[in-house]
Amino acid sequence: MNDQVGRLVDKAWDRFQQTPADRRFMIAIGGIPGSGKTTLSQIVTQALNTRHASQHPGAEPIAAFVPMDGYHLTRAQLSAMPDPATAHARRGAEFTFDGPSFLSLVKALREPLTTTIFAPSFDHAVKDPKENDIAIQPGHRIVVFEGNYVVLDKEPWREAAGLMDECWFVEVDFEVARRRLVRRHVKAGIARDEEEAGKRADENDLVNGRQIVENRVTVDEVVVSRDDESWRPE
After folding, report:
1. DSSP 8-state secondary structure symbol assigned to residue 229
2. Residue 229 forms part of a structural domain
């Protein structure tokens, strides 16, 4: 993996080694849509598990990956809002997420390591969250969170960020992010073509991105994503 990611993995592993055995080491990785934060989070989680396995052959994974996507409000909840058309059009904006439930999860993971705690995932086939789909077991002593708003300087996200051991932010040029988003939206069937995908990126994703960039908490690391190959292993 590249030097930037390798340094982050080394740092996380070293800090984890200093974490008391009865608590978790938790990282939040934020960034604008299209920044590469999801890919980075997955690579970091996998690298930490690989390192643990090299030292403890046959052991269960030590790190769990928890994306924020499971905290999208459901389509039914968006339809019940005062302006449902805007709510659906702006899905992905901060107000279309269940921040209090995300904070409750983070608080629960700060409790003693006694029971399995479940988080929701996002089912892209039905376009809604899937409850209790991610199992965070007592043996998962490292948890890597990622999402647009995990380091947003607004409650309840601010309180959740304050409970993390490390907060990282993936910085990317907006034009790079836009190109990635256009490809992603077309591939996922969110948009019919590049024109429609570009309109969605400009009117929703990058509007949200400006809020994310302009209103983030103080972070421990700013990670620069320069191109589409930046997180890939060498």
Report:
1. T
2. no
Contact of 6 with 232, CB cutoff 8 Å: no
CATH number at residue 71: 3.40.50.300
The domain containing residue 80 runs over which residues?
Answer: 3-224
* Max Cα distance, the chain (Å): 54
Cα–Cα distance measured from residue 171 to residue 12, given in angstroms and rounded to the nearest whole number:
19
As a whole number of angstroms, the distance between CA 136 and CA 76 comes to: 27
What total of structural domains would you count in the chain?
1
Question: Could you tell me if residue 57 is inside a domain?
Answer: yes
Q: What is the pLDDT of residues 73-113, one digit of tens each?
A: 999 999 999 999 999 999 999 999 999 999 999 999 999 99
In this structure, are residues 233 and 44 in contact, taking their beta carbons and an 8 Å threshold? no
User: Which residue matches tokens 């997420």?
Assistant: 97
For residue 234, being part of any structural domain is answered with no
Supply the pTM of this predicted model. 0.93
For 83-117, give the secondary structure using H, E and C: CHHHHHHCECEHHHECHHHHHHHHHHCCCCCCCCE
Q: Is 34 left (phi over 0), alpha (psi -120 to 50) or beta?
A: left
pLDDT in tens, 155-192: 999 999 999 999 999 999 999 999 999 999 999 888 88
CB 129 within 8 A of CB 119: no
Q: How far is CA 215 from CA 149, 151, 194, in A?
A: 10, 9, 29
Residue 101 near residue 117, CB atoms below 8 Å: no
